[in-house]
Amino acid sequence: MTTYTAAIATASDVVAGDYCDVTVAENEIVTHKETEDGTETPVYGMSDTIVMPSIDTDVRTDDEDSLAKAELAAADILESNGWTVTGTWEVAANALYAPVERA
Predict the structure, then answer these.
(1) pLDDT tens column, 42-65
(2) Other C-beta atoms within 10 Å of 61: how many?
(3) Which of 10, 34, 51, 66 has the greatest number of CB atoms lying within 10 Å of its CB?
(4) What confidence score (pLDDT) does residue 1 get?
(5) DSSP string, 12-79
(6) Where are the domains of the chain?
């Protein structure tokens, strides 16, 4: 089963213009971890296989409340492009990440 991650670029050094943008990419197995019962489970990470190219939001990267506003704007963009956010957004240095699936 293919899984996907949405990424919202939130910093001016990672966007092409002045606005946060959202992209969806396939996940890939980056490593495995051993569970308590000794079985290995895959650990997924975002790959370079883009399935929804970046789309600008209406949220400027320099907005004081850009993270909260970008989450809402990205959810609207994702929904209008056939995606549903299925988990919580995780904050990184210059982006937000959340699992998504096709609606």
Answers:
(1) 888 999 999 999 999 999 999 999
(2) 20
(3) 10
(4) 79
(5) TTTSSSSEEEEEEEEEEEEEEEE-TTS-EEEEEEEEEEEEEEEEEEEEETT-TTHHHHHHHHHHHHHH
(6) 4-102
